[in-house]
Amino acid sequence: MAYGLQSSYSNPLGQITHVHGYANRTSVDEGHLHIMRGDTGHTIRVPGDDHVHRVFGVTSLAVGHRHFYAVVSGLEIPTSPGFHVHRYQGVVMVAGSPPHIHRFEGITAPAPDDIP
């Protein structure tokens, strides 16, 4: 799926679920940055009729290396009626020469509310 508005669908257990697109730049460290782009994992239900998503992947290539990242988003943030987004932030795994990290933060693309 491409970054942007995502739709709901049923997972293998028959539960309504969805994913969100995301795209952001990392911090500039060691004179460069990386792009992060993809789709979150499916909904992870949490107490209180809310949910979060895993945000994970590999950054763009810069200065001969990439970084892995994996975080869990914050709770849903309502936007327009029937839709919501999630904030996410974290630090990529150490890579490069010299070894270094980058920080990142962002807000997912909107997705439909589907938690009953």
Automatic annotation (TrEMBL):
| Taxon lineage | Bacteria, Bacillati, Bacillota, Clostridia, Eubacteriales
A Pfam family this protein belongs to? YmaF
User: Which domain of life, per UniProt?
Assistant: Bacteria
**Name the record gives this protein:** YmaF family
Record's InterPro entries? YmaF
